[in-house]
Amino acid sequence: MDRVALRGLRVRGHHGVFAREREQGQTFVVDVVLGLDTRPAAADDDLTRTVHYGIVAEEVAAIVAGEPVDLIETLAQRIADQCLTHEVVREVEVVVHKPEAPITVPFDDVTITIKRSRV
Questions:
Q1: pLDDT digit string, tens, across residues 37-90
Q2: Which one of 24, 38, 76, 114 is least enclosed by Cβ atoms within 10 Å?
Q3: Can you point out the beta strands (E) in the chain?
Q4: Cα–Cα nearest to 57, from 8, 112, 109, 110
Q5: Mind telling me the catalytic residues?
Q6: Which residue in 52, 46, 60, 55 sits closest to 94, CA to CA?
Q7: pTM of the full structure
């Protein structure tokens, strides 16, 4: 399986369980790795036979900037579900980073990583 990766997509969202997170929002960072067979696209040098990562980036950004959810687990699942709507994508790994999470001790990042595939 070949991989197309989008790393470090930065989008402002209003996700979290605390009112402050919902009101003020924060920056989320998303990494997406799409699993697909790129041979058909490479053979014909044809964008329509692969996944358009620019479109995927816009879809991911719309989800993060869209309807708020309490959990980054839910956000990651929504992103994975959207990625799998692309016919050529067979599997996806999504990492959602929440570097501004409301934690009272020093930290670098909070992440959730999920892997989903077509059944």
A1: 999 999 999 999 999 999 999 999 999 999 999 999 999 999 999 999 999 999
A2: 24
A3: 2-13, 26-36, 91-97, 111-117
A4: 8
A5: 98
A6: 60
A7: 0.96
